[in-house]
Amino acid sequence: MAKSREPNADDAWLDHVRAECARAVGEWLEGSVRLDRPIRSLTFLELQCIAEAATSRWIVLASQRIAERPDAPESRKLSTLLLG
What we know:
- Helices cover 71% and strands 0% of the residues.
- It is mainly α and 84 residues long.
């Protein structure tokens, strides 16, 4: 049986980010479209807006992470991603 590893701070942060991005998508859906519609009925523009909601939340969270831990190795990686 495989030994499970202890979650580290980076894993916890990634779980938090994933949940926050999902929440942003849910909030956009609740505010913009009828939730009883099937996903296949969403337009390309609506799908782009969903992606933008998640991406925007990720940018905010990544920026906060960099500000909180500027010298951490992951901060350099996030900075590179944000700056392109």
